[in-house]
Design brief:
Layout (H helix, E strand, L loop, with lengths): L5 E4 L2 E4 L9 H46 L4 H11 L1 H44 L7
Antiparallel strand pairs: 1-2
Helix pairs in contact: 1-2, 1-3
Length: 137
């Protein structure tokens, strides 16, 4: 069956995917190096996003406290008055929080990608060793 033929999957006919790429130790080392560089860049991005979140969170808390002190209403209504008064700050904090969480998830995904490349590298090294080339030959 060629790569552009159709294959049945769960009763449906769907196009076959592209043939798997063939890796060699050099291409795997390059992929690992690229992934490691992206992880290093991701650390700086996560740090930046977290700082932005902390600044936005601090601004929200200060605005809430100022609104609380400024309100002369009943104690049970103060919280709601303050929430309305600090809507913009809370929204900015939530956006900063979402940006940090996204960057953190991306960083974790890159770490998983690195582990996958390391696994592929181990498989390729074993294949080369079995063929009598590379390490141990």
């Amino acid at each position: 069956m060629e790569s552009d033929e159709l294959a049945p999957i769960d009763g449906e006919i769907v196009p076959m995917g592209e043939p798997a790429e063939i890796y060699n130790p050099v291409s795997i080392e390059q992929a690992i190096r690229d992934c490691a560089n992206r992880i290093a860049k991701g650390v700086r991005i996560c740090n930046s996003r977290y700082k932005e979140f902390l600044e936005a969170d601090h601004a929200y808390e200060l605005a809430f406290a100022r609104a609380w002190v400024a309100d002369d209403g009943a104690a049970n209504a103060k919280k709601y008055v303050c929430e309305v008064a600090t809507e913009t700050e809370r929204q900015a904090r939530d956006v900063a929080d979402a940006a940090y969480r996204f960057a953190d998830r991306q960083a974790k995904a890159l770490e998983s990608e690195l582990r996958a490349w390391q696994s592929v590298g181990a498989s390729v090294r074993q294949a080369y060793a079995t063929a009598g080339r590379g390490e141990g030959a």
